[in-house]
Specification:
By secondary structure, the chain is an all-alpha fold. It is built from eight helices and no strands. Helix 5 (99-120) runs antiparallel to helix 6 (141-160) and helix 5 (99-120) runs antiparallel to helix 8. The longest helix has 40 residues, at 193-232. The model has no long low-confidence stretch (mean pLDDT 91).
């Protein structure tokens, strides 16, 4: 497949997922809204959400485990931040830092802003009280963090690691960790099912958009190097 066609597909998929997230969020606000949550809190898609919540029950140990494992993507963000800082110090110019790393930082900032937005404007509240407090639940912040960060680890490993064995190991780790975290949050009973779906749509939409922009930056950088080599010859 042509690189440009591949890039366009990623962009279109990313935008479609983001549009899907917006539509999904609107539907949650208006479809089958009932006061079935703690303290009489209203929940969209109430019949589906209550059915699934009763099916899985509540598993606080799994909630705690996935909560602590949520530190893993945070450490990954910090690692890429350190890599970017090292490049900045070594190359003495922000413009000389790898553009895909700069875009990665912007991607993480957008994820943080999305989290803060839905903390300030709650769509749904959790199906249970956490330490006696009714907390915002949509979209699942842990799921959003994991699915926004872990795929970028695979992307960066594929770009920067020459060893095929290490790239495969990185892919296996990202897939296994992400699957465990998403399924864990889904069945732990601390979120409604629609919270998880919303996080999946938003995180993958943001990630595919990042992939498109990062691919463009990498391709542009490669073209510039090729032109520079031709000029030297």
């Amino acid at each position: 497949m042509d690189v440009k066609d591949s890039g366009k597909r990623k962009l279109m998929l990313g935008l479609a997922l983001l549009a899907g997230f917006v539509v999904w969020t609107i539907l949650i606000c208006y479809v089958d809204v009932q006061s079935v949550g703690p303290n009489g809190s209203e929940v969209g898609f109430a019949t589906l959400n209550v059915w699934f919540h009763h099916l899985t029950g509540v598993h606080m140990l799994l909630y705690t485990i996935t909560d602590w494992l949520g530190l893993v993507p945070i450490f990954i963000c910090m690692g890429f931040g350190i890599l970017g800082f090292v490049q900045l110090v070594g190359r003495r110019s922000l413009l000389k830092v790898d553009p895909d790393l700069l875009l990665l930082g912007a991607h993480y900032v957008v994820v943080i802003l999305a989290y803060l937005l839905f903390e300030m404007v709650p769509i749904n509240y959790r199906p249970i009280l956490i330490d006696g407090v009714l907390e915002a639940s949509y979209p699942s912040s842990t799921t959003l963090l994991v699915l926004s960060v872990m795929p970028t680890l695979k992307y960066q490993v594929d770009q920067r690691v020459a060893s095929a064995t290490l790239r495969k190991a990185g892919t296996a780790f990202v897939m296994a960790f992400s699957a465990f975290m998403v399924i864990g949050r889904l069945v732990a009973g601390v979120h409604w099912a629609t919270d998880i779906i919303g996080s999946v749509l938003l995180s993958f939409g943001l990630f595919m958009t990042y992939c498109y922009m990062a691919d463009c930056s990498v391709s542009k950088k490669a073209s510039a190097k090729a032109e520079e080599s031709d000029g030297v010859q």
